[in-house]
Amino acid sequence: MPFISSVASCPAPYRYSQDEIALAFRSKWQEIMFNPDRLLSFHQNSGIEYRHLAFPMEYYEELSGFEKRNEAYLEASMKLSEKTVKKVLSQVSLPPESLSLIASATVTGLPIPSLESRLIEKLGLSHSIKRLPIFGLGCLAGVAGINRMYDYLIGHPNEAVLFFTVELCSLTWQVNDSSLANLVASGLFADGCAAVLLVGDEHPLAKKAPMKIRQVKSHFIPNTERAMGFDVLDSGFKVVLSPEVPSIVRESLPKIIGDARAAAGKDFDFFVTHPGGPKLLQAFEEVTQRTGGFNHSWECLKSFGNMSSASVLFILERTLAKERFSPGEIGLMSAFGPAFCAETTIIEAN
Length: 350
Known about the structure:
Layout: E1 3-11, E2 14-17, H1 18-29, H2 37-44, E3 50-53, H3 66-90, E4 99-106, H4 115-123, E5 130-135, H5 141-154, E6 160-168, H6 180-188, E7 191-199, E8 211-220, E9 228-233, E10 236-241, H7 245-264, E11 270-273, H8 278-288, H9 295-304, H10 311-322, E12 330-337, E13 341-349
Parallel strand pairs: 4-5, 4-6, 11-12
Antiparallel strand pairs: 1-7, 1-8, 2-3, 6-7, 8-13, 9-10, 12-13
């Protein structure tokens, strides 16, 4: 059984209150919105108090096209990635050259060559390391990346692998787009990076790992390809976000949770849930009837906003740091994202 050995997170460097961001958008949009006060109301009702951005707010005025946005993405994402990967390896004193596979995930920029390849020389990784860039999974990728590492470690039980994700959602905001989807995105999304070190069950770090992975599963929800994602424009990524997303989650969640419970053979002791927004977390509380079981997800949303695929790893890190689990207690990690899909991971305290 593969193990989660360590988790590390790094929020983006510039921290703003939700009110500061809302007022900045209101100032920009007041000439193109029918009712700019609607923006303030949505931001205030999002459950978010602070968000971290890759750049100062005023810098975004200079990002007029896809080329500049992508250059900014590469600059900021590499700084965050290097810092986060070093942090997760240092927690267990694992030499970088001992990694067999490194995987990266993003949906907010186009790094070619991919992010993990740009870290090989910087971090002293092995020149024979295997690489796996993951693009396009959005919020889903935080759990999907762990699940793909699980798949690999099943066949390589004596190896160590690393998965990291960096999302700079602020670089996808379209400042001249007053659509409802962009209004929602401007009030929810933020920037951050997180990494997970995983090992096979024959690796020396397995004995001290806090969690082992019992089972992983992918879930595709038919006819939902336009529920969430991005359209690529000359001005950058334009968010696609259907108002039907909360109802899609609510309708699909009972079966997803039910299947996971059946696979686990018991109810879950804890949850590590991506906080897509208040409505998604409320749906989890209703389906599981565990209103107190998602405190770390609510706190992450409040303190950082939705950092796409990085958020669930922020929550995993805080869950491991703040909770004291007895061996054998089990939890469910989960995230939703394009096309519309879900990924789940059953984890067990080691």
